Amino acid sequence: MTPPRVVVLDYGSGNVHSVAKAVSVAGAEVELTADPTAIQAADGLIVPGVGAFAAVMEQLAKVNGARLIEQRLIAGKPVLGICVGQQVLFEQGVEHGVETEGLGQWPGVVELLDAPMLPHMGWNTVEAPSDSVLFDGIGDERFYFVHSYGVKHFPPLGGGAFAPPKITWGNYGGPFVAAVENGPLMSTQFHPEKSGQAGIRLLTNWVNSF
Predict the structure, then answer these.
(1) Residue 77: which of 36, 41, 24, 25 has the closest Cα?
(2) Across 159-166, average pLDDT
(3) Active-site annotation holds for 193
(4) Mean pLDDT of all residues in the chain?
(5) Mind listing the pLDDT tens digit for each residue in 96-122?
(6) Domain-wise residue ranges, the chain
(7) Which H or E element spans position 94?
(8) Which of 170, 177, 146 is nearest to 48 (CA)?
(9) Pairing assessment for the beta strands 90-95 and 98-101 based on DSSP bridges
(10) Which of 17, 70, 83, 101 is catalytic?
(11) Topology of the domain comprising 5-208
(12) Which of 111, 141, 181, 193 is catalytic?
């Protein structure tokens, strides 16, 4: 049986190799590339991200990332955002008073967490929906976070033929979005590739959902 093919979008983000290695362990054949043909042909696309929201958006623009992601979603093909790769999927990021337009796949603003000590760095639990695909069998596990910003409010979506997104919440000084499952588009604020066996299981769950 041929393993699923996953592209890790190589647009200049710093953690692509560790992500690629983890996805390989999860059972996929992995390629690091920004080639549009390879991206559209792949079974899954991962959008990693570390650093600042504005910088990631600038780097994505250089490889036409918004269009590549949108084309896959229109075709119903899986996309997974990780860390800042999740954040840029929202409408807007606000860092140090600077507002940056995101990819706008979801409503919401990425803003500074309400915590006395930042960044939120280390292991933390999450509160996942009982019918989550990503957290199947690992809802009680801990995951590794490194971030100072997050989405604190996710406006209600859904209605008609569309099921509402499944939101997994974390808490650090207050609630924030730890993961989203929205049809072919999914994401995590934490780093699965740094989350040990629980992270590998989550990536395996995602790969097996294709």
Answers:
(1) 41
(2) 74
(3) yes
(4) 95
(5) 899 999 999 999 999 999 999 999 999
(6) 5-208
(7) strand 90-95
(8) 146
(9) antiparallel
(10) 83
(11) Rossmann fold (3.40.50)
(12) 193
